[in-house]
Amino acid sequence: MNDVLMYARYNQAGNKAIYGILSKLDNDEREKDRGSYYGSLSGLLRHVIGGTRFFLGLFKSALASNPAAVKVVESLDAFPQLGEGQLTAAQWKETAAVLDTVDAAYVELAGVLAAKDLAAEVKLDWYGGNPAAVPLSFMLSQLLVHNSHHRGQISQILDSLKIDNDYSGIDVSLLK
Fold it and tell me: What pTM did the predictor assign?
């Protein structure tokens, strides 16, 4: 079992738990601006989903020698992007399908990666061109940290609302 797959499953479990917690809130509470950069609890979770799609899309050219990985990444192209701003209750329910699809793609990608893929260079311009590319393993770590960071923001807001949200541990079941 590779660590990338375990962390992709951890991400999936955390997102599923958060979606479940947020779904118990009424729509106005979920969409209320909480002062975060992404505004609402819904906005934060949608940013996690969009961020995962963005990261996976960055990996496509680096994974050109792994057709199974490219197929997983390309599968997200046909899936609609989530909207910005406040969602209606019906739109929130539609978010579940997008979340499931994006998280399943992340898990599937992690499952088809070969050891050599982790060294593949991901081109980006984040660092002012220095470096112009970083190993996929580094970017997969960035994805894990990005999503954990924003789920932590959601957790802090839920804590302030006195809503139980203990979803953060890596359960041993993720080793399977």
Answer: 0.92
